[in-house]
Amino acid sequence: QVHLVESGGGLVQPGGSLRLSCTASGSTSPVNVLGWYRQPPGKPRELVAHTTNGGRRDYADSVRGRFTISRDNTKNTVFLQMDSLKPEDTAVYYCNADVLNGTKWFHYWGQGTPVTVSS
């Protein structure tokens, strides 16, 4: 069982920045993918960005160029640097971890951290 602990959400003005972090613990296998999803009010959850333990990074079109995902493999920690924030970035942000154990994938979620972009 993998436990994810997130931090860094809050209230920020448009154009501002926030940095989210998430640490995965308890995995007996390498954490292959670490990423961030978000769920805006009244909308479904969507991918923001994710990164593999091999260094690949993928971003949603809506955040590419503004958000940067990074990872510390030694600590199983993933960061999301969010710059030039917009009101439409307001959402609950969830950390996600995907672990390949043998031939089966296991997916884990954090509890979510709210981000509000408002003046």
Q: What keyword list fits this structure?
A:
elongated; four-stranded antiparallel beta sheet; mainly beta; seven-stranded mixed beta sheet; 119 residues; single chain; 0% helix
Question: Could you please describe the fold and organization of this structure?
Answer:
The protein is mainly beta. Helix content is about 0%, strand content about 60%. The protein has strands at about 5, 10, 20-25, 30-40, 45-50, 55-60, 65-70, 75-80, 90-100, 105-110, 115. Strands 2, 4, 5, 6, 9, 10 and 11 form a 7-stranded mixed β-sheet that branches. β9 (about 90-100) and β10 form a beta hairpin. The chain is elongated, with a radius of gyration of 14 Å.
Which class do the helix and strand fractions yield?
mainly beta
- On the 0-100 scale, what is the average pLDDT? 94
Radius of gyration: 14 Å
> For this entry, what is the oligomeric state of its chains?
single chain
Number of helices: 0
